[in-house]
Amino acid sequence: MRLASKHLIQTVYQELSAKRIKRFTLTSLSKSSGVSRGTIYYYFDCIDDVYKEVFNQIILQEVLQNSQSFEDLISEFISFISENKTFCLNLYYLTRDLNRKNYLIKIFNEQLSEYKNEITLPNHFIVGGFIHVLTMWFESNLELETRLVIEQLQTY
Fold first, then answer.
1. Which residues 6+ apart lie within 8 Å of 38 measured at CB?
2. Domains (ranges, CATH) in the chain?
3. What's the distance, Cα to Cα, between the start and end of the chain in Å?
4. Which of 14, 40, 67, 98 could pair with 73 as two cysteines, CB 3.0-4.6 Å apart?
5. Is the pTM of this model over 0.70?
C-alpha cells in the first residue's frame, strides 16, 4: 500500500476517533488529510471503499495479528471495539447503508475456516450469533458493558 493511501486511512481513523460525527465525505477526507480529491479517487472509487479499507487495515489487521484461534479473534474484536468506541460507532453508523452484516459474516466465516479445517452447520450459527450480538451492542451505542457482551456471546 502506498504512503498516500496509508495517510488517508490514518486520517479517517483519527477523524472518526476524535468525536461522534454524522457525516464524513470524500470532501471531508480531502480537507482533513490535505490530499486532493483527485488523489483520493486514484486509490478509492467512493467513500464506502475508504470505509472498507479502514475496517480492513485498522480493525481487522490488528485483530488478526493478535489471534491464534477463532475465540481469540472474537475476543480481540470485542476488545478493539470496547477500546475504540467513538471510532467504531462512527464507522458503524457511517456504513449503515452498506450491506455490512453480509460483509462481516463473510469475513468471520473466512476466518473461522482458517482456524478450523471444516465448517459445520453449528459453526455458521456461531458467526450468525456473533453478528446478532454485535449488532445489538452497536444499536445500544455500545452502552452495554463489555463483560455482558462477552457473556451473551458465550451463550452462542
1. none
2. 3-155 (1.10.357.10)
3. 37
4. 67
5. yes
CA 143, CA 118: separation in Å to the nearest integer?
Answer: 35
Q: How far is CA 106 from CA 6, 62, 63, 76, 128, in A?
A: 24, 18, 16, 18, 10
Distance CA 21, CA 25 (A): 11
Query: Tens of pLDDT along 111-142?
Result: 777 776 444 545 556 778 888 889 899 999 99
Contact 99, 105 (CB under 8 A): no
Exposed, middle or buried: residue 97 (CB in 10 Å: 0-12, 13-18, 19+)?
exposed
pLDDT tens readout for residues 81-109: 999 999 999 999 998 766 777 788 788 87
Query: CA–CA separation, 1 vs 155, rounded Å?
Result: 40
Measured CA to CA, the distance from residue 98 to residue 79 in angstroms comes to: 24
